[in-house]
Amino acid sequence: MPEKVELHPNNPLWPTAYQSEAALLKPLFGREFTLIEHIGSTAIPGLRTKPIIDILVVVDQIEIV
What is the pTM of this model? Predict the structure, then answer.
């Protein structure tokens, strides 16, 4: 049976939540850290979405991380 997905109205605090999480994540990757981005539906203003902040982290050498 398919899982029901509940969409929520856009929350203007999602970008702030992303920034808070990004600040915690950056130090974990040390010198290998290249880029961190807010991706997915919560990164698109006005879009109804699942209330999950998706974050993409890019590193120079995944083997080191």
Answer: 0.83
Instruction: Return contacts of 59-65, CB within 8 angstroms, 24+ apart.
Output: 59/29, 59/32, 59/33, 59/34, 60/31, 60/32, 60/34, 61/32, 64/32, 65/29, 65/30, 65/32
Is there a contact between 22 and 36 (Cβ–Cβ < 8 Å)?
A: yes
**16-53 per-position pLDDT tens digit:** 999 999 999 999 988 888 999 999 999 999 999 999 99
Q: Tokens at residue 19, please? A: 């920034």
How many Cα atoms within 13 Å fall on the side-chain side of residue 39? 7
